[in-house]
Amino acid sequence: MILPIRAYGDPVLRKICQSITSDFPGLNQLIENMFETMYESNGVGLAAPQVGHDIRLFIIDTNAFSDKKIKGVKKIFINAVIIEESGVEWGFEEGCLSIPKIRENVKRPPKLIIKYQDENFIWNEESFDDMAARVIQHEFDHIEGVLFIDHLSPLKKQLIKGKLINISKGKVDVDYKMKFYFKK
Asked: What is the full DSSP assignment across 28-84?
């Protein structure tokens, strides 16, 4: 089932998410729905807060970036903790399904070591680099209540302020299902 993506301005996007256990209700269905939603929205990653759940869960599929030299990564990350980030930060234009129509250059370290549980709640510790590391860092930020725009300079933030306000008011045209938060 395709889930609506929560738009910028929704408080769930700013929450530090809670760890979960294997008895979390409907987890397998949620993961399946998240993959379906991500693919339908042409994303390469999706975090649980983006579909309204403040839990430490995110998924990635970087096969869209893969080629003969770089293999794509498709994974589920539960209760993830980044152990280490290293290397000289490099910039890349990032976007976010929760912040449509805005893409900005974000600098991140090219390598990371992350500890996480898979869908069977087995602990793993793995190293990732390049694009896989970037997508993981972006999605990990989501479960920490951080958005890619938080990495921008004050000037860049000021330049996109109007667009962010429009997104928070539902004034954005997207070709995927979104849910907007309106204060009462």
From this structure: HHHHHHHHHHHHHTT-SEEEGGGGT--BSEEEEEGGGG--SSS---EEEEEEEEEEE
Helix (H, G, I), strand (E, B) or coil at 77: strand
What are the structural domain ranges in the chain? Answer: 5-179
Residues belonging to the active site: 139
Query: CB 29: neighbour CB atoms within 10 A?
Result: 10
Digit-coded pLDDT (tens) for 16-75 = 999 999 999 999 999 999 999 999 999 999 999 999 999 999 999 998 876 666 678 999
Contacts of 61 (CB under 8 A, 6+ apart): 35, 38, 39, 44, 45, 72, 73, 74
Output Rg (C-alpha) for the chain, integer angstroms.
Answer: 16
Q: Which CATH superfamily includes the segment(s) 5-179?
A: Peptide deformylase (3.90.45.10)
| CA–CA gap between residue 166 and residue 155 (Å, rounded) | 18
User: CA nearest 40: which of 177, 179, 180?
Assistant: 177
Alpha-carbon distance of 107 to 17, in angstroms, equals: 24
* CA pair distance 82, 112, nearest whole angstrom: 7
Q: What is the pTM of this model?
A: 0.95
Question: Cβ(119)–Cβ(28) under 8 Å?
Answer: yes
User: Tokens standing for 52?
Assistant: 């309204």
Distance in angstroms (rounded) separating the CA atoms of residues 165 and 156: 14
